[in-house]
Design a protein that fits this description.
By secondary structure, this protein is α+β, with helices and mostly antiparallel strands. The protein has ten helices and six strands; from the N terminus they run αααββαββααααββαα.
Length: about 475
């Protein structure tokens, strides 16, 4: 089952991945079937789904960090049963029994009956109530919390990094789809050429058998024809296995279970677009964009810097407005004497932590410095890779022209060899050599043709100039890191 139903809702929540569309490289985006496969892979590939889920998680964490600036309202309820504990002793009996006895004696002397008790016991008041409840609403609102602001900036940068990694995955997926597509087409075209060559060799073997029976040829001609036919059969078996493997790879990228229904391009080699372009004009065609991997590192640097700022912000106090309203007492009852309310301004200030905050801050700064160094190194590597890809593209263009001329020459030579064989004026060795040269020339032309297409895709990838297809996604709200 396709994962399109799972990914489509996520697309609706996320921002457009790529920078504005740029002009595509020559013929690499002109194949409608390839563009359909690319869109299908972007919509259903599990790697894309994983990156989308990661981006969604980062954005939700950024929203959660931003919500820390807003007031929060909670409810707390506590019911307690107490047994034992401390007791407050009050000497009621020791204090009042002697006094009451004296008062009773005075009353008796006046002829009146005693009116005061003299058997009072000392009082024992438990420190804890036997049962107690407290239910309240609690409001908390940060008034001054610089650590929260720095944390929001860090989460926003992490979200940007996740978005850049998503675009990097999309561009890598496009590259792999093109590589598998052209690889499968190349293998299938080679399979067709070898099948045609095998048919010619089978016919040559049949003719050699007829000549052997008629006595016009010796047995070595038959053996030579059979050996050449078996050699091509071995190549054909390898080409068929390579075709199945390439189709399975393309189906995996498209998240399909079967590779039999894949449509591949016309294997006919073409010299269109093969003429070498002037070096000075290449940049106008490619229009390189900044690679998403570099943007991911930039966002990582911002996140590390924000983390260092968050640790430094802990050196300042945090001021919070706190309010409570509820009821308390021995039983649950809403009465005038059971309600209570408080409003406080609370300051929290961690004055000393044995250098823990300083070490964490320095670690974040070290991470930012590490990412800056990695970015410089990656930028150099990508620059070199782009130059190498451009040079290889120029070589592939010239190679396709050479391969096409080689096929024309091999076809003309084979046509002459066929006429000479029909006139019995050409040896079997010469005919087989002409046939082998034609097969090799056609295979080389097919390989060179798809190598050129693949090299176009490589230049698009390393220059990030391929315009990602329009995906069913809408612009999402940018995470605001300002207080």
């Amino acid at each position: 089952m396709k994962r399109l139903s799972v990914i489509a809702p996520l697309f609706a929540m996320l921002a457009v991945l790529a920078p504005p569309a740029v002009q595509a490289l020559e013929t690499t985006t002109g194949d409608p079937q390839l563009q359909r496969y690319i869109r299908e892979a972007l919509a259903s590939n599990p790697a894309m789904e994983a990156r989308l889920q990661a981006l969604l998680g980062q954005r939700l964490q950024a929203e959660a960090a931003r919500a820390q600036r807003l007031p929060s309202l909670g409810m707390e309820a506590r019911y307690t049963r107490a047994l034992g504990g401390r007791v407050i002793e009050f000497p009621t009996g020791d204090l009042f029994n002697p006094v009451y006895a004296t008062l009773n004696q005075l009353l008796q002397e006046q002829g009146e009956a005693p009116a005061f008790p003299t058997d009072l016991q000392n009082a024992e008041i438990p420190f804890l109530r036997p049962q107690e409840q407290e239910t309240k609403l609690t409001l908390r609102a940060p008034l001054f919390a610089p650590e929260i602001t720095a944390a929001i900036a860090a989460r926003a940068a992490q979200s940007d990094s996740a978005q850049a990694r998503l675009e990097a995955t999309a561009r890598m997926l496009v590259r792999e789809v093109k590589r598998a597509y052209y690889g499968a087409a190349q293998a299938e075209a080679a399979e067709g050429i070898l099948e045609a060559s095998l048919a010619l060799l089978e016919e040559d073997l049949r003719i050699a058998g007829v000549m052997l029976r008629e006595g016009t040829a010796t047995r070595d001609r038959v053996l030579r024809a059979r050996a050449e036919m078996l050699a091509v059969q071995q190549q054909l078996d390898a080409a068929r296995a390579q075709t199945r493997q390439a189709r399975r790879q393309l189906a995996r990228l498209l998240d399909r279970n079967a590779a039999d229904n894949l449509v591949l391009p016309d294997p006919t080699p073409s010299t269109e677009g093969a003429s070498p372009a002037p070096v000075s004009a290449r940049d106008d065609v490619e229009r390189p964009q900044e690679r998403p991997e570099l943007r991911a590192l930039d966002a990582g640097i911002r996140a590390a810097q924000a983390q260092a700022e968050a640790e430094a912000a802990q050196l300042l106090p945090e001021i919070v407005l706190a309010g409570d309203y509820g009821i308390q007492g021995e039983n649950y009852a809403i009465e005038s004497d059971s309600e209570f309310g408080t409003l406080s301004i609370v300051m929290r200030w961690n004055l000393f932590d044995f250098g823990a905050r300083r070490d964490t801050r320095d670690a974040a700064r070290a991470e930012a410095a590490q990412l800056r160094a990695e970015r410089r190194d990656l930028e150099r590597q990508l620059g070199i890779a782009l130059e190498e890809a451009r040079d290889a593209l120029q070589v592939s263009r010239r190679a396709l022209l050479t391969a096409s001329a080689r096929v024309e020459a091999a076809e003309a030579a084979f046509a002459i060899a066929e006429r000479k064989r029909a006139e019995a004026s050409l040896s079997q060795v010469a005919f087989i050599d002409a046939q082998r040269a034609l097969t090799e020339a056609r295979l080389n032309a097919v390989i060179t043709h798809f190598a050129l297409q693949d090299q176009h895709a490589e230049v698009e990838f390393v220059s990030a100039s391929y315009p990602l297809p329009a995906l069913p996604i809408a612009s999402a709200e940018t995470i605001d890191a300002t207080p």
